[in-house]
Design goal:
By secondary structure, the protein is an alpha+beta fold. Helices cover 30% and strands 36% of the residues. Helix 1 runs antiparallel to helix 2, helix 1 crosses helix 3 and helix 4 packs across helix 7. The longest helix has 17 residues. The chain is globular, with a radius of gyration of 19 Å. The N terminus is likely disordered.
Amino acid sequence: MGQATKAVSHLREVGCTLRTDERFPVPVSDGYSVYGALLGVLDEVDADVSASVHDSPMGSLHSSGLVGTFGGSDRPHHKTVLPGEEYQLSLGIVHSDDTEVFQALVNGLVLEGETIELSHGELRVERFESENATHAELLDRASEYDDPTVEIAFQTPACIEEAGDVTTMVPYRWAVLNSLMGKWNRSCPEDLQLELDREAVLESVIEKPDPRSFDTHSVLVNRVENEDGENRNIFRQGFSGRCEYTFKNASESVVNAVTALALFGEYSGVGSAVARGCGNVVVKCKNDG
């Protein structure tokens, strides 16, 4: 049995608009660099909060990395941040001390530094918006839909480890929902835990990927020092694109659970390495009934 996790009081989603006055290179997989910069922001405000986010076993801070228009770069495996362009950064907080993490981000990005410092330049925070929810509120929202179509846009690579180091490279319904259910149950109050049966999902949930938007990726998520003192890059494999999930002869409990888990994904991210730019999703639900 794993160690119990303190119930989250709120789930928080943060949107930042960033700009720069200079050109500078960032890695093609920029999520790892942005995560390090965010930990630096948290550390300057509250070292204990920074450590708790870094040490969390459940990926309690989810970051999209930089989303926007980039230029090419002479540096291998890099792209260029451009002055005059807007870059979006989406953050999700699924943490037992969500208020402390959120307040540290506000203090670091809005009230004090107002910049995110990367290796070769910095980005200025021009807009900072947030909203929050609870697990109970997401369940209430899910119950408002009758026979919905749930569209998940996997905006950054979703790296879902199904067995050991083997990842799924398609938005397979059980892999996606099982990943989200694990994050949900590790963060919610005990009385709101969800149990989805694998066979029920396979029998009553249908995935319809959009082949025009589908792509696969190998993403840099970490660097570790090997025995020779040299840095070794760690990569995760994943997919991006849009996928619709619909229902066939599904029970009300399955429909509600699937819909709530999808909505939760905007806060938690999907799969592994969500703090390092992976698994950022945008979810739309519409009634078909």
